[in-house]
Amino acid sequence: MIYLDNAATSKPLMQCVENAEKYLLREYYNPSALYAEGYNLHLELKEARRKILSFIADESNFSLTFTSGGTEADNQAIFCGGKRGNIVTTLGEHSAVFSSAEELKQRGTEVRFANLNSDGSVNTEHLLSLIDDKTSLVSVIHVNNETGAINDIFKISEKVKNKNKYALFHSDGVQAFGKIAFKLTKNIDLYSVSAHKIGGLKGCGALIKRKNLVIKPFIFGGGQEQGLRSGTENVFAIKCFGDASENAYERINESYEKVKRLNDVLRSLLDRDIFKILSYEEASPYILAVSAIGLRGETILHEADDNGLIIGTGAACSSNAKKRFSRVVLACGADEKTADGVLRLSFSSENTMSEIKTAAEILNNIVKNRLNIMA
């Protein structure tokens, strides 16, 4: 089986699971307990927190709160950051941000959505035009989860602060963390990451925040995670997250270059007479969006699965949505016929060139055969 849906979730790294196994089977104590065994786990969590944070931020300026995943981290940022006036976000956000913003709108908060460029990146000029002195939060996704478009959140956040220095700036970094090299700057207030996109386990993520920023908790209870996220900590998953992060950042440039080669080859092998490439060359190489115009992407997905190829049709988190067409692809300017045929092919450094060549052959054959039947 060839797996090209890594943007949805990745295979857990066995080494990370084995390293953390003792926290599941032997050292399963409560890290918030007062006995020595619990306190020792508290120190283990402290080290995992420091390790993960160190890869993208200066620990003296940022802190990290563990969550159940990127979705919870996004929700905490939106609901705890957008407390007054209006909030500004984009039409290209992951559903965890977009749906949270829509819910805020239902609760009476004014929400303004910035348009997208044709590649899925935000139209910065339009975004800035929506910001005023009453804007409390601006949220811009770092790497678009459907097209791979990279937003320069560092330049954008600087421009946002120049227009309203009191507005908080949040970014969903789930598709960027562990895949592209960067360091958070002083203009980033909140940043969301997830473990299972880089070989960690599902059910673990984090919200990174600027240290002197005061926000209220999203989940209440026992006051864990410095009072910002109550609930007994998932030590096993957190330790896996730390190890997976270390593995990703030890070879981040090497992995990037390998995945770029895989992406380039798949682009070149897909028949351009039947496939339209939606992801621009400048996008993250980890995501390649294409469209088999005239066919349903979901139909191709199922037939590809029957032929030993697992792919996506867009954001997996939106697969239960009632709307047939991707709102992100439509916001890029695509028509419904193009949006209907969208496929998302997403890579891991574990993929091989042989798999990519076979995947291209499978997809070309499926689409050609279906178009011949329709002719």
Task: Explain what this protein looks like in three dimensions.
With 375 residues, this protein is α/β, with parallel strands linked by helices. The chain has 12 helices and 12 strands. Helices cover 39% and strands 14% of the residues.
Could you give the order of strands across the largest sheet? Answer: 2-8-7-6-5-3-4
What's the β-strand tally? 12
Unreliable spans are none
Beginning-to-end CA distance, first to last residue = 31 Å
CA radius of gyration is 21 Å
Structural class: alpha/beta
**Beta-strand residue fraction:** 5-15%
Order of helices and strands: EHHEHEHEHEHEEEHHEEHEHHEH
Number of helices: 12
- The percent range for helix content is 25-40%
Q: Report the principal-axis shape.
A: globular
Largest beta-sheet details = 7 strands, mixed
What is the mean pLDDT? 95
Could you list some keywords that capture this structure?
375 residues; seven-stranded mixed β-sheet; globular; alpha/beta; three-stranded antiparallel β-sheet; 12 strands
Show the helix and strand layout:
Elements: E1 2-3, H1 14-25, H2 36-54, E2 62-67, H3 70-81, E3 86-90, H4 95-106, E4 110-114, H5 124-129, E5 135-139, H6 153-163, E6 168-172, E7 190-194, E8 205-210, H7 235-250, H8 252-269, E9 276-277, E10 287-291, H9 297-306, E11 309-310, H10 327-331, H11 336-340, E12 342-346, H12 353-374
Parallel strand pairs: 1-11, 3-4, 3-5, 5-6, 6-7
Antiparallel strand pairs: 2-8, 7-8, 9-10, 10-12
Helix pairs in contact: 1-7, 2-7, 3-4, 8-12
